[in-house]
Design brief:
This protein has 214 residues and is α+β, with helices and mostly antiparallel strands. The chain is built from four helices and eleven strands, in the order H-E-E-E-E-E-E-E-E-E-E-E-H-H-H. The protein folds into two domains: 130 residues, Deoxyuridine 5'-Triphosphate Nucleotidohydrolase, Chain A; 68 residues, no CATH class.
Amino acid sequence: MLIANQAGWLVLNTQPLRVTWTGGPAIDNLRIEYLSGCAPFSVLSHFGHGILTWNLPYLFQTPPGYNLLVRGPSNWPKDGAYPLEGIVETDWTASTFTMNWMLTRPEHTVTFEVDEPICMIVPQRRAELEKFYPQLVSIESEPHLKARYIEWSKSRAQFLSLLGTPNWSAEQQGWEKHYFRGVSPDGTRTVEHQTKLKLRSFDASRDPDYCHNS
């Protein structure tokens, strides 16, 4: 989950607001209360059906062959609102895009605070998923994998059976953490295991007109 939380760049909300959906499909069935700032506001009801829309003030560009997955922040549930996802071909388009959240509970007021994440952007190589050929096969066809799985299963079953035993070391250990440490129960260590990501921040140093205090 930690890596999923870090696997993209977050766009933050800049204006506090409260929004309530009456339950109808019309644009004005979404009541928006802007808590500070002045018009024009970047958040509005554009599509109807309880959808709240952010006009993002950025024109994203990616290297040739890369799209942007535009989604809500990972593992950031919000009561009464759900982020809608989209994929944009940002390597050729010269237009901006919006971020949209759908209200899910009529007459339930949802608040979006300043600096609250409202969008996550994740680069994706175009056509990468289409290169995969998913298959369903019996584990019996992979005896080495089956042996490793059985070893892990026995280790986990033994761990769980002893977890409540007083003064047992697992009580202090919490969990085996084989996956977290990138090792199999037999001690085999994987080469490319990651426990966290550290993405580069957006760099505005090349733009002399960019205001760092904005």
